[in-house]
Write a structure and sequence with these properties.
The complex is a heterotrimer of chains A (636), B (179) and C (108). Chain A is mostly helical. Chain A is 71% helix and 3% strand. Chain A contains 24 helices and two strands. A two-stranded antiparallel sheet of chain A has the order 1-2. The longest helix of chain B has 26 residues, at 50-75. Among the domains of chain B are: 1-80, NADH-ubiquinone/plastoquinone oxidoreductase chain 6, subunit NuoJ (Four Helix Bundle (Hemerythrin (Met), subunit A)); 133-171. With 179 residues, chain B is mostly helical. The chains are: A mainly alpha (636), B mainly alpha (179), C mainly alpha (108).
Amino acid sequence: MLNLVWLIPALPLAGFLLIFLFGRILGEPRAGILATLMTASSFVVVVGVYLDLLSRTAEERHHVVTLFSWLPVGSLHVDMALLADPLSITMALFITGIGTLIHLYAIGYMHGDPKFSKFFLYLNLFVFSMLMLVLGENLLVTFLGWEGVGACSYFLISFWHTRDSAATAGKKAFVTNRVGDWGMMVAMFLAFSSVGTLSYAGINAAATGGKIAAVTATGIAMMLFVGACGKSAQLPLYIWLPDAMEGPTPVSALIHAATMVTSGVFLLTRMSPVLHASYPWLGDVIATVGALTALFAATIAVAQTDIKKVLAYSTVSQLGFMFLAIGSGAYVAAIFHMVTHAFFKALLFLGSGSVIHGMHHEQDMRKMGALRKLMPITGFTFIIGWLAIAGIPPFAGFWSKDEILLAAFANNRLLWLIGVVTALLTAYYMTRQVIMVFFGEARWHDHAEENGAHGDHTPHESPWTMVAPLVVLAGLSIAGGVLQLPFSHSTKFLEHWLEPVIGHSEVSIAGSWADSNKWLLLVVAVLIAVGGVVASIAVYAKGKFKIIEPKILADAWRYDSAVSAIVGGPGRAAFNGVAAFDAKVVDGAVNGIGTEVRAASGLLRKIQSGLVRSYAFVIGLGAVVLLAWFLLRGIL
Amino acid sequence: MELFVFVVAAAMVLAGAVGVVTRSNPVHAAMSLVLTLFGIAVMFVAHNAHFLAAVQVIVYAGAIVVLFLFVIMLLGVDKAEDLSVEPITNQRPLAAIIGVGISAIVIAAIISSRAGLGASGQGVNQTTVDSPDANIRQLARVIFSDNVFAFEITSVLLLVAVIGTVVMARKTKSVGTGK
Amino acid sequence: MSAMLSVAQPTSTWYLILSAVLFGIGIIGVMVRRNPLIMFMCIELMLNAVNLSFVALSSQIANINGQVAVFFVLVVAAAEVVVGLGIIVSIMRRRTTVTVDDMSGLKG
């Protein structure tokens, strides 16, 4: 089964090609069904590979399938090779699993869209790229997937490109991601120049064996972190993710919540030996950036009124948690949170999509309310997602967030405090969202007309293709925590599973104060989560306190507009200066050379008389001179 | 006897060559070319290259010169060329320098290296009464063994030339001026 | 008389000198004549000059390969004449002039 690893990305690619060729003939809904089937069969293959890996011993859980030699250039030798190991298969499992559910959901959500088949074309291409990213055996294959998901993200954000805001959001995501891609490329260059290979096995072995100097390792890891910041929307490059909500909601769920944005976390985990070999301050930098992003985004989410914007900032915040874990050396916790986050955030996004669908494309939460009774399944599953992200036991988010906070406490108590405040805010704004959307009084009557809703104004429950994924994801959000339970060593399944990949770099907290008092910290986390929920209920449901939603938070701390002001003002002036330099000096030099060559050729072209007999004379002259030279040299 | 043959043949060759260059009427020039080609054929016979002599007469005199004459007649360019004027300055003196120069240098090389050449007629089969086709047989053996690949390629070359010429010389309805 | 004749046996050198002269005449013809057909004939003269030297040297150094070379030169000459005359025919269809000096459209 392990040798069939290539089938995992090949099936979505086949789906992409089939829809590319026959998309118009297939039409709705067959294109969607085909895409869903391809992703589903890819999931089946992943499960097969997973079971095969599971049947082996920990040391043998590393299988490379080389498809062909991709770049044999001198000492740079890169194979198109896929790697099946616990980390990549974990990623592939939830990418294809959640991907299938979201494909199914999208069949209902995109119903009636004129570009129905094109949507699934991009979606399958995305799944292919994402699988290449996680299954790649070397940095370059990963980079191929990395750029592929970036391109798909761009296509899908601006899927409704006739809307100006969607086109702009797509461009913004693309440009911001370039900064991150630059970091990743520099990291590759550094890795190749210092290790001489791009394969993970080679680089990680060199890092583990101490063959990479600490300063080089720090440089590589730093640049990888820059790349991860761009892809995973960390400070200061997070700005594209909230705008990416312009895309269709299944895209937000798949790309901008569950899979693509976590690829930065994946990359740092994959290269964890290099991080381990770096200077210790790098971990602090990553953890600090992660914690600050988490807090920063959580404060913004408190004041957002768009149902998807809240979830977007929440995603940024949760990604910050994952980076906090990575910086603290808790890679297992990062992956654990990535998986549970994929479950509940996909659920929340799909739930919000179901709400938007039912509300005739209304996204403003101020115009919703009391939807619980009209959309019972959506409401019920959304509430499960809310409990999971808020950190209420025994839902999935509680276990993974607690794991991260534990590692953060052992690493740095200030960062732990930031994490706890963020957890409080998370519970607060998610409760606010649930109350605004599903409880309280119905506020949608007054707005139905201006929305252009036609016929029945009443929100309605979504079709089964959309509801079924919600139910499955809700189940996963409830039970996801069993992957890694802190009760005893033997219940930490994920840790044992990932042991062969990151066991070397994982920082153990065993024996520390945090470890021995982890039940205390657990209780604190529960109290914080419940506190956030209660506070929010008091404010939004009971109206006991005044609603505090400062304008500056709704404007995302004016960070976005500040960036625009800097790039638009001094930035533009600087660009104009560069452009003038380019026009005058660079172009001047180029044009000057051109003018000189033109003048010289004007003189030379007179030789070309066009008279064949003159050319014959020149040929003859050449022959005479050559023969004379031979004769004089005595060759003839 | 050989001297006599050489003198007559050389006279034919040179007279024909001078005629090609100097006769203003293209038809006369073509006739002079035939004279040269026959002279060369005679010299081939003198060197026992009977096969080549035959080919020289058949292909050159029989096919190529006839082709020349056809084209001359087809295009109606059998008007005499005015050789008294030369549009390009100094072209004739330069031509003379080049022509005489090449001949002189080659002759100088021939004479200076004359001693280096061996005796004549040892490895080339002579035609005798017993084996009248010895030369052809020897030539055929070399062409169809050592040079068989080149020989096959020349057939492709000729095919390409024929097709190319047909394509070029065909009157196209849209482009042709319809003369 | 017979002794005189035997002294005056034409050797290969004679043929080679004749070939050189013929080649020179051909060159002069190419450079002097303006009719493309006659330029072609002059090129044929040069080819024949080379053929003559091949055959002369072939019997001189006793190697049949010289005659094989002549055989191939004949083939190439035939192909060259066919293509060249095809070009001339297609050019002459478009213009009435007959000299190569008028075909100088490709000048710089």
